[in-house]
Amino acid sequence: MSAWNGLEHELDAWRNAGRTATFWLRDDDACGDSDALQRLLRIADDHAVPLALAVIPAALQPDLAAATASRAGVTVLQHGYAHLNHAAPGARACELGAERAPAAVVQEIVAGCARLADAFGGRFLPALVPPWNRIDDGVVAQLPGAGYRGLSTFGARSAAHAAPGLVQCNAHVDPIAWRRDRAFIGADKAIERTVAHLRARREGGVDALEPTGILTHHLAFDAPAWPFLDELLARICAHGAATWLRAHAILAGAAGVTCARSA
Questions:
Q1: Is 188 left (phi over 0), alpha (psi -120 to 50) or beta?
Q2: For residue 244, what pLDDT is reported?
Q3: By the 8 A CB rule, do 112 and 78 touch?
Q4: Contact status, residue 108 vs residue 81, Cβ threshold 8 Å
Q5: C-alpha span between 240 and 258 (Å, rounded)
Q6: Which parts of the chain have pLDDT scores under 50?
Q7: C-alpha distances out from residue 116 to 54, 84, 111, 155, 237, Å
Q8: Quick one: which of 237, 118, 23, 139 has its CA closest to 128?
């Protein structure tokens, strides 16, 4: 069985169980407009897939708001503050870790939150995506009081709320091999990871209500990654037991959307 057939088979299993497999699309490290961003936006638009764009506040360029202004399917999330590593030498990279007092970290990211709210208005959702998907528990505990409604890292969540009033919904499939050559891992591996999370949800190994999150980094994508993403979205959209959710539906309780079907 090919990897693509494996995805079809897994979605068939959801349909046979009378269930719908939910997905969401998160893209990290956005700063400004670029050819890569426009390519990502076109792919999402072609399949009517909502996009959660995680933007770095300190690196925000004025042209990003203009580039996304007409894209109704784009929701802006906050990607840390400056995407700077404050970890000790030799430790895993982390901007929002325990190296600084939680109150100082929160003060910094709240300033970033205000910048994004000013730039994007109602298209900005106060949900935090920590750089490198790492954040100290002490910082997490202060996020609801600072006005945040959602948190998104990587891997199957252990609970639906990271703190009281703070919904957690993560990404689960990253098609880039960051620790090797930062290249596309290949369609087979990426599909297998997608199927693995779907199967674990269906069989009760992880939270069945957490949508399967596809994570992209448009600035880091190499040539083979783009057609894979296009085909992945197309195949999921073509299946009657799959739907894509907006970030608001996941992290703020608004309604989801279903992909447009190909004619």
A1: alpha
A2: 98
A3: yes
A4: yes
A5: 10
A6: 254-263
A7: 10, 18, 9, 26, 30
A8: 139
In sequence order, the 6+-apart residues with CB closer than 8 A to the CB of 161 are 167, 168
- Answer yes or no: are the C-beta atoms of 48 and 220 closer than 8 Å: no
Cβ within 8 Å of residue 69, ≥6 positions away: none
Residues 95-152 have pLDDT tens digits of 999 999 999 999 999 999 999 999 999 999 999 999 999 999 999 999 999 999 999 9
Is the sign of the CA dihedral 117, 123, 125, 129 positive or negative? Answer: negative
Nearest residue to 248 (alpha-carbon basis) of 240, 256, 258, 237: 256
Are the CB atoms for 157 and 169 separated by under 8 Å? yes
Q: Quick check: helix, strand or coil at residue 71?
A: coil
| Gap between the Cα atoms of 208 and 63, Å rounded | 38
- Burial class of 2 by CB neighbour count within 10 A (0 to 12, 13 to 18, 19+): exposed
Q: Which residues contact 232 (CB under 8 A, 6 or more apart)?
A: 190, 191, 194, 214
Q: Could you tell me if 26 and 216 are in contact, meaning their C-beta atoms sit under 8 angstroms apart?
A: yes
Contact 52, 25 (CB under 8 A): yes
CATH architecture of the domain covering 3-251: Alpha-Beta Barrel (3.20)
Q: Which residues of 12-35 are buried (b: 16+ CB within 10 A; e: fewer)?
A: ebbeeeeeebbbbbbbbbbbbbbe
Distance (Å, whole) CA 23 – CA 213: 6
CA angle 236, 44, 23 (to 5 degrees): 40
Pairing of strands 150-151, 124-128: parallel
Which pLDDT score is estimated for 253?
57
